[in-house]
């Protein structure tokens, strides 16, 4: 019966190709940092093995370069190019990265056998034309996995804060030794705020840390108000934006945002928030959200310029962009995750090799 069930599952999977053959379907040359974080988080929540996790990342790279594609061959969609006509789910479900990753991992766990490499396991799920391409994608998949645990830099006053190898580092010195931090840290009032793989936000001061919030899905954002208090924000697991500092309260409905919010403190002491909602850049002041741009592919970073205006930066296809009348490219260099914008118009960003550079 088990063999018959596996045959039926394989038939249901349909045939996937190594990247869509539809020439009208544009596949970015680099992965979407938010997508790899979501896929990684789903795998962790399901407690999949390292092998199954690697199979998911290999499949994601081969099928879509780890992007949530709204197109593909025939009716294929999403990160794993799953087909509604083959029983993977509705188009809306498949375009939900959490759902798509869950379907892939659940099937991969059922199909895993000792003799299968991660790539062959990916092919057993995907039923592609080119089984060998998944194992060939292993170096890229391992790089994305390393990034899924890390994030962009946070640079304050020229001091670089990053998460590397599970710990917070400050200007090349290890601040923590717990090896459970992920993503991009935030700094305010001399305290570093960083997220753990378990969805906690910890405040790190002098090498010690304490939990200040839990249930978060994205990196925290901390800002210092003129009165010396710290405002702390994050996107929760239900997709809502929340103020985590006391008194805590929601800033948006569920399903509103992904990634890391960016906050700025204006001259009058008010705090403005900027978040990614789908491909839209949304901003709020006093709780009212408004759309200010589209075409967003990652989390934004906002900064108050010396003249009091706000500059917004983001990566699109891995390249830095600044928001003016439209998104304005700032060069051809490629970076990962998010940029750390500075008041003078420069920014810091992390390369795929893990090096933090100043540009702009």
Q: On the 0-100 scale, what is the average pLDDT?
A: 89
Low-confidence sequence ranges: 1-17
Structural class per helix/strand content? alpha+beta
- Overall body shape: globular
* Spatial order of the strands forming the largest sheet: 1-2-3-4
- Percent of residues in helices comes to 10-25%
Approximately how much beta-strand content do the residues carry? 25-35%
Total strands: the figure is: 23
Straight-line N-to-C gap: 61 Å
Radius of gyration: 21 Å
Number of helices: 8
Specify the biggest β-sheet: 4 strands, antiparallel
Task: Give an overview in words.
- Helix content is 23%, strand content 32%.
- The chain is built from eight helices and 23 strands.
- It has helices at 2-13, 33-45, 50-64, 91-94, 97-111, 118-126, 132-136, 138-148; strands spanning 154-156, 159-164, 167-170, 173-174, 181-188, 191-196, 201-205, 208-213, 221-224, 230-235, 241-243, 249-250, 258-265, 271-277, 280-285, 288-293, 301-304, 310-316, 319-323, 327-329, 336-341, 347-350, 356-359.
- The strands form six sheets. The protein has a four-stranded antiparallel β-sheet, with no helix packed on it. Strands 5-6-7-8 form a four-stranded antiparallel β-sheet, with no helix packed on it.
- A hairpin with a 5-residue loop joins β13 and β14 (271-277).
């Amino acid at each position: 019966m088990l063999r018959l069930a596996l045959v039926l599952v394989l038939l249901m999977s349909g045939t996937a190709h190594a990247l869509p053959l539809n020439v009208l379907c544009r596949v970015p040359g680099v992965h979407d940092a938010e997508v790899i974080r979501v896929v990684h988080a789903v795998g962790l929540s399901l407690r999949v093995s390292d092998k199954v996790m690697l199979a998911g990342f290999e499949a994601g790279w081969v099928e879509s370069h780890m992007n949530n594609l709204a197109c593909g061959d025939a009716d294929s969609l999403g990160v794993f190019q799953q087909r509604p006509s083959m029983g993977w789910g509705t188009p809306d479900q498949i375009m939900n990265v959490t759902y798509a990753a869950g379907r892939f991992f659940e099937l991969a766990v059922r199909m895993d056998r000792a003799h299968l490499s991660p790539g062959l396991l990916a092919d057993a799920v995907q039923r592609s034309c080119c089984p060998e391409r998944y194992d060939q994608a292993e170096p890229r998949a391992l790089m994305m996995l390393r990034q899924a645990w890390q994030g962009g830099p946070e640079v304050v006053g020229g001091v670089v804060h990053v998460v590397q190898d599970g710990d917070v580092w400050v200007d090349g010195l290890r601040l923590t030794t717990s090896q459970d931090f992920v993503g991009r840290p935030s700094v305010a009032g001399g305290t570093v705020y960083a997220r753990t793989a378990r969805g906690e936000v910890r405040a790190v001061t002098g090498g010690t840390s304490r939990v200040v919030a839990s249930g978060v899905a994205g990196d925290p954002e901390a800002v210092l108000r003129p009165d010396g208090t710290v405002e702390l924000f994050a996107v929760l697991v239900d997709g809502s934006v929340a103020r985590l500092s006391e008194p805590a309260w929601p800033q948006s409905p569920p399903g509103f945002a992904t990634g890391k919010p960016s906050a700025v403190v204006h001259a009058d002491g008010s705090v403005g928030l900027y978040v990614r909602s789908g491909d839209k850049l949304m901003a709020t002041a006093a709780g009212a959200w408004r759309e200010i741009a589209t075409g967003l592919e990652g989390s934004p970073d906002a900064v108050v310029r010396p003249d009091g205006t706000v500059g917004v930066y983001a990566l699109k296809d891995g390249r830095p962009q600044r928001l003016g009348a439209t998104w304005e490219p700032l060069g051809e260099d490629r970076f990962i995750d998010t940029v750390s914008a500075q008041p003078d118009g420069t920014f810091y960003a992390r390369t795929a090799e893990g090096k933090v550079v100043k540009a702009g």
